[in-house]
């Protein structure tokens, strides 16, 4: 019998009463490995109500105790690291090494949440006026909501609920229905770590569940990672209902290659950054911008990409796994064909990729386009597959203009031996995360994930110090005390001997 995925409501793992169950499939085989519910309206309401009740208690728990929960949690995550990664590989198709990276980057954020006391300190000053003091506190908001995508089912939930809960909030997680097993395992370990009943709730479902949560009056903050259209909907709906929202959206990330860069470093990094994880990550490099004579390296780039092959999660020679579902594969193949029809030169075509022993997998091989123009759909849309586009320009200024005219601003990188070129690039580029000789500049958790423009809707970003500001409110107190009111008398005097 196929496993039915539980939900976590009010501290209990419960089986939904829903009449609608969604199959969870292995992307390499299409075998159904579980069924996930579309939660009922009553289940959503009960989860929110019990999250509110949990918050009313948790907000007054000492910050040191909140930190200790996170310390126990990160220890459990490390203990079960490989087990979680194997489960993640089963439902996403990721290679085991890629899955382990997914889990570890999440653990790093939990470690940051252990430092919540220092991160959430307020400010104080004496004598802002004569014998008047001023000081500020950070206080938790209430019930927070996280809606996470399929492509990082460990890392992105761990971006959200540990930081929010460490700040004193309660949290409702709505993970992707395409790979819910990993988030549920994270939740089980959180309960095992000693998290109080109801502080974390996990609901499953499709857009009906999401829409019910977005407008719920008891939910005060919403975190989201996903596609542009959904991010726009969540941001607009949430803010229209007077909620705090951070919505991370799509990307079209460019790598600029200067002629003075180290050629082999460029090629090695560009291969991994473009087709790693099957290109299914918002920080993937999908456009290579060759400046001047560096365009001569495109042939060697093609040869290197041709050596990469997809495969099953436990195939140690595989560069990446299958795409998440047949619809994702079909979308990528459609865009590849549109690129060909528009006149781009497909010098390496992965459309007919076959993996021995897995005839039903969602495979797309490494694909490389040259002669790409900015009006083509393959340039304008986020492909979210192992497809790399090559553009050629004569100068760094042209490269900067090209990227700044693209509507997305998630990540970019430049490879160069010139400090002056790197300084000019990082200063002038209108992108939130910039790598210098680093292909995928995802910041470590003591910084924040800072996408710009159409890649992000909101004000405060994920993890780092900005997460503390997002999940808390600041209260400022101005106080004056009158010395004439100091009690005097024999019982108020300390006698020194």
Helix proportion of residues, in percent?
25-40%
Largest sheet: 7 strands, mixed
Give the DSSP E fraction (strand runs of 2 or more residues). 15-25%
Number of helices: 16
Query: What is the total tally of β strands?
Result: 23
Shape: globular
How far from one another are the termini? 81 Å
- Determine the mean pLDDT: 94
Name the poorly predicted regions.
none
Strand order of the largest sheet: 15-16-17-14-13-19-20
Draw up the topology in text.
Blueprint (H helix, E strand, L loop, with lengths): L2 E2 L2 E3 L2 E3 L6 E5 L6 E6 L3 H18 L4 H17 L1 H12 L3 H18 L2 H4 L4 E6 L2 E9 L2 E5 L7 H12 L3 E5 L6 H12 L7 E3 L4 H8 L4 E7 L2 H13 L3 E5 L4 E5 L5 H13 L9 E7 L6 H9 L19 H16 L3 E4 L18 E4 L6 H4 L6 E7 L2 H9 L3 E2 L1 E5 L3 H10 L4 E4 L15 E2 L2 E2 L6 H7 L1 E9 L17
Parallel strand pairs: 1-5, 8-9, 8-11, 9-10, 11-12, 13-14, 13-19, 14-17, 16-17, 19-20
Antiparallel strand pairs: 2-3, 4-5, 6-7, 7-23, 12-22, 15-16, 18-21
Helix pairs in contact: 2-4, 2-7, 3-4, 3-7, 4-6, 10-11
Describe the model.
By secondary structure, this protein is α/β, with parallel strands linked by helices. The protein is 37% helix and 22% strand. It contains 16 helices and 23 strands. It has helices spanning 41-58, 63-79, 81-92, 96-113, 116-119, 155-166, 181-192, 207-214, 228-240, 263-275, 298-306, 326-341, 377-380, 396-404, 419-428, 464-470, and strands at 3-4, 7-9, 12-14, 21-25, 32-37, 124-129, 132-140, 143-147, 170-174, 200-202, 219-225, 244-248, 253-257, 285-291, 345-348, 367-370, 387-393, 408-409, 411-415, 433-436, 452-453, 456-457, 472-480. The protein has a seven-stranded mixed β-sheet with strand order 15-16-17-14-13-19-20, sandwiched between helices. Strands 10-9-8-11-12-22 form a six-stranded mixed β-sheet, with helices on both faces. A three-stranded mixed β-sheet has the order 1-5-4, with no helix packed on it. Helix 3 (81-92) runs antiparallel to helix 7 (181-192). It starts with a strand and ends in a 17-residue tail after the last strand. The mean pLDDT is 94.
């Amino acid at each position: 019998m196929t496993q039915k995925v539980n939900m976590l409501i009010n501290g209990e793992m419960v089986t939904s009463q829903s009449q609608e169950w969604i199959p969870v499939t292995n992307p390499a085989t299409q075998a159904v490995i579980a069924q996930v519910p579309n939660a009922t309206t009553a289940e959503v309401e009960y989860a929110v109500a019990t999250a509110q009740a949990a918050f009313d208690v948790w907000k007054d728990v000492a910050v040191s105790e909140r930190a200790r929960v996170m310390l126990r949690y990160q220890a459990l995550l490390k203990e079960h690291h490989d087990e979680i990664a194997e489960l993640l590989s089963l439902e996403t198709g990721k290679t085991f090494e890629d899955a382990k990276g997914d889990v570890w980057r999440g653990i790093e954020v939990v470690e940051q949440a252990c430092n919540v006391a220092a991160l959430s300190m307020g400010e104080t000053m004496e004598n802002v006026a004569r014998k008047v003091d001023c000081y500020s506190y950070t206080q938790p908001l209430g019930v927070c909501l996280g809606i996470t995508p399929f492509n990082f089912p460990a890392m992105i939930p761990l971006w959200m609920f540990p930081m929010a809960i460490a700040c004193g909030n309660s949290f409702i997680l709505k993970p992707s229905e395409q790979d819910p097993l990993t988030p549920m395992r994270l939740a089980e370990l959180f309960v095992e770590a000693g998290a109080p009943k109801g502080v974390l709730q996990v609901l499953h479902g499709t857009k009906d569940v999401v829409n019910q949560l977005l407008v719920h009056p008891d939910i005060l903050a919403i975190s989201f990672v996903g596609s542009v259209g959904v991010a726009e909907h969540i941001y607009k709906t949430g803010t229209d209902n007077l909620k705090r929202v951070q919505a991370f959206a799509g990307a079209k990330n460019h790598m600029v290659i200067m002629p003075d860069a180290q050629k082999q470093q460029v090629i090695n990094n560009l291969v991994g950054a473009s087709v790693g994880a099957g290109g299914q990550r918002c920080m993937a490099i999908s456009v290579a911008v060759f400046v001047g004579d560096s365009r001569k390296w495109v042939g060697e780039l093609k040869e290197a990409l041709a050596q990469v092959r997809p495969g099953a999660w436990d195939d140690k020679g595989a560069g990446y796994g299958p795409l998440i579902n047949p619809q994702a594969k079909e979308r990528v193949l459609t865009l590849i064909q549109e690129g060909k029809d528009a006149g781009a030169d497909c010098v390496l075509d992965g459309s007919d990729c076959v993996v021995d022993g897995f005839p039903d997998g969602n495979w797309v091989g490494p694909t490389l386009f040259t002669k790409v123009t900015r009006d083509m759909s393959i340039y304008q849309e986020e492909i979210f597959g192992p497809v790399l586009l090559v553009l050629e320009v004569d100068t760094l200024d042209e490269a900067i203009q090209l990227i700044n005219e693209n509507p997305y601003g998630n990540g970019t990188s430049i490879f160069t031996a010139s400090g002056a070129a790197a300084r000019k690039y990082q200063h002038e580029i209108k992108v939130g995360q910039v790598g210098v000789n680093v292909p995928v500049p995802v910041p470590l958790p003591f910084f924040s994930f800072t996408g710009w423009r159409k890649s992000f809707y909101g004000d405060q970003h994920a993890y780092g110090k900005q997460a503390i500001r997002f999940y808390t409110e600041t209260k400022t107190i101005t106080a004056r005390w009158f010395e004439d009111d100091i009690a005097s008398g024999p019982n108020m005097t300390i006698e020194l001997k």
